[in-house]
Amino acid sequence: MQSTDEPAPFPAIRLIFEHTGTDVRLISQQPVDVAVSGYDVHPDVRTGHYVEVRDAAGQPLARVPVHSALSGSTEVFPEDHSEPITRVDTPQQSGAFTVVVPASPAARRVAVIQVSHPEPGRPAIAARPTAAAPGEPAVTELADFALETGR
Amino acid sequence: MTTSDGAVLGITQISGDAPRNRAFNIVLLADGFTAAQQNDYDTACTDFVTALFGTPPYDELRPVINVFRVNVSSTDSGADDPSSAGGTGATARTYFDSSFGGNGIRRLLVCNTSTALSVAAAQLPQFSLALVVVNSTVYGGSGGSVGTYSLAGGATEIAIHEAGHTAYGLADEYPYYAGGNETGHDHHPAGEPSQPNVTLNSNRATLKWRWAVAASTAIPTMSNPNCTGVDSRPSPVPTGTVGLFEGADYYHCGAYRPEYDCKMRELGVPFCRICRQAIWNRIGSLATLPARARTPITALARYPEHLDVFAVAGDGRTMSNWWDSSSGWAGWFGVSGGYASPGGAGSPITAVARYSGHLDLFTVGTDNRVWSCWWDHSGGWSAWFHVGTLVARPGSTVNVVSRYTDHLDLFTTASNGAVMSIWWDAHGGWAADWFAVSGGVAAPGATVTAIARYPFHLDLFTVGTDNRVWSCWWDDRSGWSGWFRIGGMAARPDSGVNAVARYPDHLDLFSTASDGRIMSAWWDARSGWSDWFQVSGGVASPGSPVTAIARYSNHLDLFTVGTDNRIFSTWWDSASGWASWFVISGGVAKPGSEVAALSRYDEHIDVFAIGSNGLVYSTWWDASGGWANWFQLGIT
Question: CATH top-level class for B288-632?
């Protein structure tokens, strides 16, 4: 299939982030020849953390979920599998996570965002929240970074 | 305890041969193995591969999974095991700085995730999942963006559970946070979880895994009578039953899981069906689709920048893929766990978009009953459900027409060949049951074609038991007409009749004669029916029908599989008449298969076919660039 835009030299970019709690830093950008599946780039809005690819005007081009990072807790597994798995809080845990985002020719920036359910009767509290209509998920931007697009 | 405490020795692929840019690539990283212990690491990696592919659905997905081991030597053997967390107090200088005792809990085995991700990306930029294998027989592991696990017996289960979170976004299905005696976890807070395997919704009609719930299964299937604790009663239904079991996502009540047990609830048990489907959809989407050889593909454009394609896999699974101009092809996924009838050429999935945010799908199932499901932008896929009580001819096609947005008309053949119909209307739902259309009987293997030239008019076509093409019509003023024969052509018994209305008072029909000649006839309101004529000398492969589309009112494009199984096209234009047949980009199809085509806008055609190797292929034509090369339809 064809696109009206010039194809990107690589179809995707791997991003590696480090974080302490929700303080996020982008430490690596790596063009990569790999498919980003529709399973990840789904169009509907769901709660969770995402890396959002944006164009020069700040419009979202794609959202890729960040699984198993920034959750604030960690699982502990029993040696006897019939015993319960448990979780422990790790609110200021340091770590790293990676996502592979589609390298649209129009992509200029990436943002780490949190999509959350609205709390009834009160607006979303966030560092840089986007406007959300009543009852719609609130989007909170944790950080944003320029992409080294090579163009 | 840094990268100065060892060295990356290299990467070796130990399982799979899928193209790395179209595969689920798992990278295993060694920690705490000295240079002399690399053979032990190699053995541990082999054990992981055995455990992974012994875990459904990974066994089915093996063709698109590559596993690599990255050999990394560490200065010391093992991992830190601090005494403050109940360990031995041992310290080890290792490359990824692995340590037991995270958060003061000995079994919590953590590593430097930043180093692990950087090494994985450097060794294999296309990696999908990174796991650190730690050289210790102390039981431990952890999840997150990098999974860690030790060499203790059963610790590979930690890696496979954690991959459920990291790679597929699965939720934990256990109904507690700290083992069940915690406070503050009696009732799940409001807000539907985004993960596919937990829900707060107990409505059968809108349940996110409703496609997998049998009508006979109670919803909820199991409710917790005491929300101050975990419901530890045994399951009231057989193992593997998909329903709604209260207690999930760290809460005793208010959240539900799909099955009584699942690897996302307890290590050492299989994944539940919903988690298996999520894993399948993530990894399977990277694969091409080996399709049932002669079963037609359906393609439609809900709007010009979007395509939805439906095909039946070789094992009968109902599959779909979509393309959007902004993101390319999404990859194949199973539609609501459905299976299509294998009779004849195999029942296809037929689809219609009554409006741009909605799809209705139909097929004949393995029980030879007619099934339907729908997709809606607001709620995703529904479950498959029976349409009426009709027992269809095995392998029948269900033809669907939407005369207007709130109405559907369905046509198919009963087990005795009778032409049958049923309708759905937004105001009254499905009609009581299927009815026979004017006593018509189709030849074995023949399909019923329907077209709506006006919202109040239908034209039907089929090949009768005398192998002649027959038609009848319905008009809301006069009801159903009787069947009448169109010309004297002897059609191939299993022929389809393709009908195109270039404008409301005109029909063009295409079919194949008994000797395979590609034939056409037309009807015009002013002059009536023409006789059949052969189109540009074309002859089709035995079993292959003719596909026709009208990009505008004075132009037709035809597609078929020729006797040499090459994929041919021709066109008709009112100014120049019929062109000669030509081969599209050298394409070769399965003998007897069908070519699907559609036009998203006037100067563009998308074509789909099953190639000689059994995989689904596509190409396109655009007025600005002519025909593109064929490509395997999978993920962009």
Answer: mainly beta
